[in-house]
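Notes from hallway chat w/ T.B., transcribed later so I don't forget. T.B. wanted the structure written out for a chain they're using in a teaching module, and asked if we could keep both sequence and C-alpha cells in one place. Agreed to drop them here.
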Amino acid sequence: MRITTLIENHADSGPSGLEGEHGLSFFIEHPSGVFLSDVGASSLFADNAGRIGVDLDQVGGLVISHHHYDHGGGLKRFFEENQDGAVYLREAPEADYLVNDPELPRYIGLDKKVLAENSHRIEYISDNRMIALGVHLLTEIPSVYAKPSGDTRLKMRRGEETSHDTFEHEMAFVLEADDGLVLLTGCAHNGVLNMIEAACQAL
C-alpha cells in the first residue's frame, strides 16, 4: 500500500512546486483499489495531483472524514476530474456547521449545492462498513476519552438553535496493510484515542 499526500498545511519548497493550504488530502493505492481520503479546502489538491502525475479518474472511492470545508471543499473539482468514483460521507443530522470566531463567525460546512447536484454519486454511511476488502469506514466511535478541548469554538446550528458541534458527522477510515492497520482520522474531532478505540473494537 502507498499513501501520497496531495495537500496539507505546508507548501513543498522543493522542485515539485506543490502548494499548501489549510486542508488535507491523501491519495491511497491499496490492493483493493485506489481511494482518496479528503479533498482539501479547494481545487489545489487536484492541481498538486497533476504536478506529480496522479490521475484522479483512477479513484474508485473518496472518503470525506467529516463535513467541514477544509476536508471537502474540493468536492466540486473532484466530480469534474473523476467520472465514476463513489463519495462516502457519514450520515448526520441536517445542520449548518460554524466556527465561533469573534472576528469572523462563519459557515465551515460543505457546499450544499455541490452535494445536491451530485447526490447520485454520494453514499451516506450510518454504521461501520467495509467498502472493499480490507477497507473500512467506522462511524461507531466511543467516548471513552476526552475530546479535544480546542474544538469548543466549533458549533452546529439546527433551525434557530446553535450548540456545540457533536461531531456526529465524523468517521474513521481504516485500511488493512501487510503489517497492521492504518487509521486515517482527518481532524480527529472525536479524539484520536477514541478513534483508535473504535478500530480496536471493530477490527
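Follow-up for T.B.: The CA atoms of residues 40 and 150 lie 21 Å apart. Might be a good example for the class.
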